[in-house]
Specification:
By secondary structure, the protein is an alpha+beta fold. It is built from 6 helices and 8 strands, in the order ααααββααββββββ. It has helices at 17-46, 60-150, 152-163, 172-183, 201-210, 220-223; strands spanning 188-189, 198-199, 228-230, 240-243, 251-257, 260-266, 270-275, 283-286. The relative contact order is 0.09.
């Protein structure tokens, strides 16, 4: 025996084949596990990471703010719509006002034209009456001079002859008409009056001719064309006198003879007996 035989060898003892195989299997399993884990880690690294955000909780204050914002938006929309409607209404009103103004100007121009025409006609009629009044005044003066030389009886006849009117006495129906209007002298003048104590001009004339069963129109315009037109130089008692145009007369009266007429003149004079020279008529019609 060697002197070193009792000393344990420092070399590692040889492993048996089974031990080696077992350890190789364990190592292989570990390596396989690592490989799988690595592959899994690579796969996980390739997948996108999804981040989850938590939404804030809808509190009562936030809900109130959202509601107020919605109300404000709705109110703004309503205000805009209301303003649009107001603008449209203002534009329409301006358009209508412009049209109304044009129509008013047109009417005003027409009224002005009519007024000017009426003024011209009135001026012409007034000039005609003034001329007739002057002629009658001159005739009266001449008759007065003649009467002073030949007596009052011949003076009355001269007035009638100079004025170109009849001095004959009314008879028959004419006498009844004349008597009626003379009986109303002193009555009041009232526009639209038809008696028995107040009259307007055409109301008096109509009532006078009703005494002899003649129904005349109510107004002076129609009465001025109710009979046959006669010359002012050939008047007879009972003739209807008119002032203004035939068919557009503004006043009527009844000739009673001797250059005189009776008419419901105006509120200040009432029904009065006047000379033709007081207000010369424009024309006359004979109904009887």
């Amino acid at each position: 025996m060697s002197h070193t035989a009792h000393i344990r060898s420092h070399r590692k003892p040889r492993r048996s084949a089974s031990t080696i195989a077992m350890r190789a299997g364990v190592a292989g399993g570990v390596l396989s596990t690592l490989a799988v884990a690595g592959a899994s880690g690579s796969a996980n690294a390739a997948e996108p990471v999804t981040q989850t955000l938590e939404l804030p909780t809808l509190t009562a204050d936030l809900a109130a703010q959202i509601a107020q914002s919605a109300d404000a938006t709705q109110q703004a929309a309503a205000n805009y719509e209301l303003q649009a409607e107001r603008d449209a209404a203002a534009a329409q009103a301006a358009k209508e006002a412009k049209a109304d103004l044009a129509e008013a100007k047109k009417k005003a121009a027409e009224e002005k034209r009519k007024a000017e025409e009426a003024a011209r006609k009135a001026a012409a009629e007034r000039a005609s009456r003034d001329a007739q009044r002057a002629a009658l005044s001159a005739s009266v003066e001449i008759s007065s001079e003649s009467g002073s030389n030949s007596g009052s009886g011949s003076a009355s006849a001269s007035v009638g002859a100079s004025a170109g009117v009849s001095t004959s006495t009314a008879s028959g129906s004419a006498a009844a008409v004349v008597a009626f209007v003379r009986a109303q002298v002193g009555d009041a003048y009232v526009s639209g009056g038809t008696g028995p104590n107040s009259w307007d001009c055409s109301g008096l004339v109509q009532a006078a001719f009703r005494q002899v069963n003649i129904d005349l129109p109510r107004v002076s315009q129609a009465q001025s064309t109710a009979g046959t037109q006669v010359s002012l130089s050939n008047l007879q008692p009972g003739d209807i006198l008119y002032w203004g145009g035939a068919g557009s007369a503004y006043h009527v009266g009844v000739y009673v003879g001797d250059g005189m007429f009776v008419g419901a003149q105006n509120p200040s004079t009432g029904v009065a007996l006047k000379s033709l020279s007081y207000d010369p008529p424009s024309g006359a019609v004979r109904v009887l």
